[in-house]
Amino acid sequence: MLGAVIVVLGGTWYGLAHHGATKAASAPSAGTSLSVPSRAPVTTTPPPPSGPTAWPGPLPWPIIIADRGNNRILEVTPDKQVVWSFPGVGAMPQGETFFGGDDAFFANNGSQIITNQEHNSAITILDYTSRKAVWEYGHPGIVGWQPGFLDYPDDAYVLPGGNVAVADIRNCRELIIAPDKHIVASWGSHSVCRDNPPHTFASPNGDTPLPNGDLLITEINGNDGRAVRLTQTGQVLWNVHIPDVAYASDAQLLPPGDPNAGDVLVADYSRPGKVVIFNPQTGRVDWEYAVASGQGEISHPSIAVRLPNNDILVTDDYRNRVVVIDRASKQIVWQYGTTDLSGYAANQLYYPDGLDLDTFHTFPHTAAGHYSGPLDGGVPSGHAPGTVLAPDKGQ
């Protein structure tokens, strides 16, 4: 389907963002299509109104960063201090490694973090306090499509109730996985990668949960990126072309109170990269950040998240930094990472590909926004950077 289909745009549908396999598993003897279930128990609620006091300045809270090239997750304060990191010695089950985590989202009121490892065909949930893996899905290093297997999983989220949603890019499907690891719901078909949701998807790489339980699916679909709003029962409410974007990544829905409430925010995973806000009803681009060169250029941004003051937090993957873009001036007003320098030391990243705001934990800081607690150090014990594989986002 090439034209935009808009069926429903009403209701409570606004949301905030919180988006080396080489051996293939043997396929079962029959049955390649994935059925559309009558109901998928996907539920989600808005974040609680209370939480840590916002810090002064462009970034209101600390953030976790999936530092993919360094095989680690860091938590960084607004004044750029590293206060938490993963993994350390003993963090993963014996014989397993954390490899290429490219997203990190808080779960269960901040007590856990879920991270997907695209090139490792695995999803991991880790405990924030102990910094140890407590749940995994997939067979690390082995691709497949039958139950228990994944092929380039992206944007894994823990939903209220404990189910996990994941966009399984190269299997061209969206999965809902129960805590006991059985498949609660699946939409798409691993054998057909074409835009015809919910029956088939064209390389989905995002599945942002919305407050009423819907999912906002992002399809790469070549250079015809699509944003698909899918209900809990698998009904497509709308399926629209994403304008002015060459490589769509991790669409988000802007909430009430935003100047463009109801619009879709999406990153263009290209060079030069873009961040685009568009109206899904009309296809009109209402805001865009697109700088062709210089310090302001972004390269292959994977996810863009709206901040409470309406500014945009973005992973600038290929330039090894995370930035805040002032929405009014279209200037970069904060960054972590040294531009165009990959590294493992303080204020250095190597292909950061995912992030989330920490609105759950309180970190001591002065009125001026200077962190006053213990530092983590940022280098997990016994862990070394790994090799970054081709960052093609699954297609």
What does this structure look like?
With 395 residues, this protein is mainly beta. The chain has a single domain, classed as Neuraminidase, CATH 2.120.10. Helices cover 0% and strands 34% of the residues. It contains no helices and 27 strands. A 5-stranded antiparallel β-sheet has the order 1-18-17-16-15, with no helix packed on it. The protein is globular, with a radius of gyration of 19 Å. The two termini are 20 Å apart. The N terminus is likely disordered.
Topology:
Elements: E1 5-6, E2 23-24, E3 63-67, E4 72-76, E5 82-86, E6 105-107, E7 112-117, E8 122-127, E9 133-138, E10 142-143, E11 153-158, E12 164-168, E13 173-177, E14 183-188, E15 204-209, E16 215-219, E17 226-230, E18 236-241, E19 248-253, E20 264-268, E21 274-278, E22 285-289, E23 301-306, E24 312-316, E25 321-325, E26 332-336, E27 352-357
Parallel strand pairs: 2-10
Antiparallel strand pairs: 1-18, 3-4, 3-27, 4-5, 6-7, 7-8, 8-9, 11-12, 12-13, 13-14, 15-16, 16-17, 17-18, 19-20, 20-21, 21-22, 23-24, 24-25, 25-26
Strand order of the largest sheet: 1-18-17-16-15
CATH topology (fold) name: Neuraminidase
CATH superfamily: TolB, C-terminal domain
**Protein structure class:** mainly beta
Broad shape:
globular
* Strands, total number: 27
CATH structural architecture: 6 Propeller
Order of helix and strand elements from N to C terminus: EEEEEEEEEEEEEEEEEEEEEEEEEEE
Span from first to last CA?
20 Å
Write down the Rg: 19 Å
Largest sheet geometry? 5 strands, antiparallel
Strand content: 25-35%
What is the CATH top level name? Mainly Beta
| Count of DSSP-assigned helices | 0
Mean pLDDT: 86
Name the helicity range.
under 10%
